[in-house]
């Protein structure tokens, strides 16, 4: 069991944010509950002990990351827009945007995830869920964020 599975579930939750006009903590909790029910499909090859481990460790991670993105959405989008050239977040595919939001949050807020891991995981998600150009698009934006992230005061914008 790895953090990649939790990251994929966080991506699913983050992907849903733009579809809910009046998203709030209650709506987000309902979305989270829905996705937690779907996890059993991913765990068919694991035993009950693995399920307990996922619930206690990795689902906490998925919850914390997806909620962190939700709480800091505007500042995360601002960071993405700083490095996306003419492709503002309003023009991006929702899949690419969800992946970018997840990766930028991890890069700037999750201390135990190295920047290169956040980028690599984002590129892998893009290869799986995005279109043919998603992985290089995401890699380029995240590369720009990683080069400038020490200059970008993320906490000041939350």
Radius of gyration: 15 Å
CATH homologous superfamily (4th level) name: NusB-like
Q: What is the CATH level 1 assignment?
A: Mainly Alpha
Structural class assignment: mainly alpha
Q: Can you tell me the number of structural domains?
A: 1
Number of helices: 7
Helix content: over 70%
CATH architectural group: Orthogonal Bundle
Number of strands: 0
Please explain how this structure is put together.
- The protein is mainly α.
- It has one domain: Orthogonal Bundle (N-utilizing Substance Protein B Homolog, Chain A), CATH 1.10.940.10.
- Helix 2 runs antiparallel to helix 3 and helix 5 packs antiparallel against helix 6.
- It is globular and about 35 Å long.
- The mean pLDDT is 81.
Q: Can you summarize this structure?
A:
The protein has 158 residues and is an all-alpha fold. Helices cover 71% and strands 0% of the residues. The N and C termini lie far apart (32 Å).
């Amino acid at each position: 069991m790895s953090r990649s599975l939790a990251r994929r579930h966080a991506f699913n939750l983050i992907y849903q944010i733009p579809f809910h006009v009046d998203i709030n903590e209650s709506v987000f909790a309902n979305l989270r509950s829905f996705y937690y029910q779907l996890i059993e499909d991913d765990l068919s090859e694991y035993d009950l002990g693995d399920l307990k481990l996922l619930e206690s460790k990795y689902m906490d991670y998925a919850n914390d990351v997806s909620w962190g993105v939700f709480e800091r959405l505007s500042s995360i989008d601002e960071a993405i827009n700083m490095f996306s050239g003419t492709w503002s977040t309003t023009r991006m595919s929702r899949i690419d945007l969800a992946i970018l939001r997840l990766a930028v949050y991890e890069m700037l807020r999750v201390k135990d995830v190295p920047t290169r891991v956040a980028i690599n995981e984002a590129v892998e998600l893009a290869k799986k869920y995005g279109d043919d150009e998603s992985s290089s698009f995401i890699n380029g934006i995240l590369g720009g964020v990683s080069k400038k992230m020490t200059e970008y005061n993320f906490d000041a914008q939350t």
